[in-house]
Design goal:
Number of helices: 8
Organism: Thioclava kandeliae
Domain Hedgehog/Intein (Hint): 173-319
Strand order of the largest sheet: 1-3-4-5-7-8
Shape: globular
Number of strands: 23
Protein name: Hint domain-containing protein
Largest sheet: 6 strands, antiparallel, barrel
Radius of gyration: 22 Å
Helix content: 10-25%
Distance between the termini: 47 Å
InterPro entries: Hedgehog/Intein_dom (IPR028992), Hint_dom_sf (IPR036844)
């Protein structure tokens, strides 16, 4: 079949642990622009990639071509809210620009075919200066502690996407029902835990569970969103006795890796890596035939390392994207119980180093395989 290549510039990337693109993203959460090459099947010879028609593509921005998974095409608008001294001004850009979004190697990529994101933000700055008197604008910026309106917009503008294919579901770190969580009373099924239960943590002894959330995914939901299929880590797949029995977690659930290889690569003996980056290991694979799954997420005062079926893995990381990925009901509950976690200036501290690049994590796993070393030593 014919293939074509297209060199793209001014790509915007998001390197968080997303399964897809949320409806809104804060500009400061996006990485700097990058360039790369999109290679795609052109089955109908029209010179365009027709994702919906099944034409596949690869994306290469670092010398390695990775399969590109389509998220959607549509439009994006930007807005910014100025809140100071009791004054709230919501400024929204009236026009929108076209955007196409895809995923490759665990990252989300945004492509603006008619102009880069900078034009969108410049338009927002222009509208702000037209809408607010210079005196008031200076007062507001001084109160916000910023010297440049463009700087403020670049850090606080929110992009809102309207994608024709719909947005993929984000999903926070979760344990599947039946997972044994180590408590002060011994191993307990995760679904039987309640707030107040004292859970064994690696760094802070037994800590009270602050909140537990749950989400049921039916067979139909899993068929529509195959990337949400749970990952099974078989007994001994991480090392001798780790886990002690098969462990089933959500794809983005991070597992603790502890080795000299990690020390050499990151300068950190211990790092947290998503379960879906471990599938090249023997004994780690998606559950393809699962009928449904009940996921549970555990929240503590801080990001913790807990013990699930004997293996060390993370609790819910309360970064802004993880919180947005909760169901509306769960987010409202967390916001009511712990408003500080949903504050714009909340910056959680990860329990361990979180490698950003998916390719680097793959190299970490590959080195363990080639050297026949367990992931947790």
């Amino acid at each position: 079949m014919p293939t074509r290549t297209r060199d793209l510039t001014n790509m915007q990337t998001y390197e968080g642990s997303l399964l897809g693109l949320s409806d809104t993203l804060v500009v400061s959460n996006l990485q700097d622009s990058s360039d790369g090459t999109l290679t795609f099947d052109d089955n109908d010879g029209d010179g365009n990639i027709d994702w919906d028609a099944g034409e596949s593509a690869t994306w290469d921005d670092d010398g390695t071509a990775d399969e590109a998974t389509y998220i959607g095409s549509g439009t994006v608008t930007s807005a910014v809210s100025l809140n100071v001294l009791g004054l709230s001004l919501d400024i929204e850009l009236g026009s929108s620009v076209n955007v196409t979004a895809w995923e490759a190697d665990g990252n989300t990529y945004l492509y603006y075919p008619d102009g880069d994101q900078a034009e969108l933000l410049d338009g927002l700055v222009t509208q702000l200066t037209d809408a607010i008197s210079p005196t008031l604008l200076t007062t507001v910026l001084n109160a916000l502690g910023v010297s440049s309106l463009l700087e403020y917009v670049e850090q606080n503008a929110v992009l809102t996407f309207d994608l024709s294919a719909g947005t993929s579901i984000q999903f926070p770190v979760c344990f599947a029902a039946g997972t044994q969580i180590e408590t002060e009373d011994g191993p307990v099924d995760v679904e039987t835990l309640t707030p107040g239960c004292r859970i064994r943590t690696m760094d802070h002894g037994y800590q009270p569970l602050k909140w537990i959330g749950t989400r049921h995914l039916s067979r139909r939901s899993l068929e529509r969103n195959p990337k949400l299929r749970p990952i099974r880590i078989e007994k001994n797949a991480l090392g001798r006795g780790l886990p002690e029995q098969d462990l089933v977690v959500s794809p983005q659930h991070r597992i603790l890796v502890r080795s000299k290889i990690s020390q050499r690569m990151f300068g950190q003996l211990e790092v947290l890596v998503p379960a879906n980056k471990l599938t090249s290991l023997e004994g780690v694979s998606p559950l393809e035939d699962v009928e449904s799954v009940d996921y549970y997420h555990l929240l503590f005062d801080q990001h913790e390392i807990v013990f699930s079926n004997g293996a060390a893995s993370e609790s819910l990381y309360t970064g802004p994207q993880a919180l947005k990925s909760l169901s509306p009901e769960a987010f409202e509950e967390v916001q009511t119980l712990f408003p500080e976690l949903c504050a714009e200036d909340h910056r959680p501290i990860p329990a361990r180093f979180l490698p950003e690049k998916g390719k680097v994590v793959k190299k970490l796993v590959a080195r363990h395989q080639s050297n026949h070393k367990p992931l947790y030593a």
